[in-house]
Amino acid sequence: MPVTQPSGLARLALVHLDGASRFGMTRPQLLHTAGLSEDQLRDPDARIPLSAVERIWRATAARSPDPLLGLKLGATVQTRQLGLVGYTLVFSRTLGAALERLARYSRIVSDALVVELGGDTDATWVRLDVQPVLRAFRPAADGRLAAVVTMCRELVGAPMAPQAVQFPYRRPDDVREYEKFFRAPLAFGALSTAFLLTHDDLARPVVWSDDALTGYLEQLASQPLRELGTDPASGKPMVIKDGRFGPYVTDGETNASLRKGDEVATLTVQRAAEMLADRRAAPPSTRRKNTTTRRKAATPARSGPKRS
Fold it and tell me: CA nearest 111: which of 54, 192, 43, 40?
């Protein structure tokens, strides 16, 4: 049955359940609390509601007195557990190329996952955002930071350390385990969840790089997120694809980015056709051809980098 609300890959739940089981939590209890069944998780690439992912996080945190649970869960994640998206990272040439692909294909993993890279000439911030209900929830914030840093270390085959790490919640009383894991200056109460890498770090080669295989996997990952039907104006099929700046509707000639309030899972044929019609009627864009919107400079600050 298709999911008609914001969704993510069933892999999100499977990875979480696998990690939670290592800490003595039973899979049936967590599934019951999340409102999920084993049938929904049979295909790792099926879509499940993000509300269920939130419930799994809440249930896991409620069953554990360990304030470091999210950090520990994130540290168990392996890149290949992300499926096709993970394999495009594994076979990238450099860590920077792998992170660019994670940013490009993050919406395949989750409708709400946003990975952004932004920096200056010396370093780049890797910013991670998710659905608002989990944005500043400590276990989930720790989990996504630890998971991506762990994947970076796996990809380059070395215990690399960020230059700085930022958390979107108040500083805990004891941060020794955070210092031990990240081996970097920590800032709490930031506006986003982020870590800083030098350009030398981004240039590190990925140990399994394979350009030919990555190109093939990118073709697979670039397939439409959803097929919508025929555009009444052009007579061509409309699909939703994931682009550099997020999901967009296209009939093969005209593209229109999804706007605030539009969701991949719930966008209707009528709404898609309206967006394409508006785009055709709009005057030609005069925006300068640059990438500063995506890569605007950011420097460490008490409040953290702004989310775009």
Answer: 54
The pLDDT score that the predictor gives to residue 292 is: 40
- What are the DSSP calls for 206-223, one per residue? PTT--HHHHHHHHHHHTS
Taking the whole predicted model, whether its pTM rises above 0.70 is answered as yes
Instruction: Count H helices and E strands in the chain, helices first.
Output: 12, 11
Report yes or no: 8 and 53 within 8 Å, Cβ to Cβ. Answer: yes
Please give the structure tokens belonging to residue 245.
């700046």
Q: What residue spans of the chain are helical by DSSP H?
A: 10-21, 27-34, 50-62, 69-74, 84-90, 95-109, 132-135, 138-156, 176-182, 199-202, 211-221, 269-281
Span 223-262, pLDDT tens digits: 777 888 899 989 999 988 877 667 888 998 899 988 878 8
Strand 237-243, strand 226-230: pairing: antiparallel
Q: CA-based angle 208:213:215, to the nearest 5?
A: 120
The CA distance from 18 to 46, in Å, is 17
Lowest mean per-residue pLDDT among 8-22, 103-117, 140-154, 215-229: 215-229
CB–CB of 128/152 below 8 Å? no
Question: Per-domain residue ranges for the chain?
Answer: 1-65, 66-222, 224-281
pLDDT tens per residue, range 36-87? 999 999 999 999 999 999 999 999 999 999 999 999 999 999 999 999 899 9
Does residue 86 or residue 121 have the better pLDDT? 86
Phi, psi torsion values for 242, nearest 5 degrees: -105, 115
Q: Up-side HSE of residue 51: CA atoms within 13 Å toward CB? A: 6
Task: Say which DSSP state 307 is in.
Answer: P
- Tell me, what DSSP letter sits at residue 41? G
**Strands 193-198 and 226-230: what pairing?**
unpaired
Crossing angle of the two packed helices 211-221 and 95-109, in degrees rounded to 10: 20
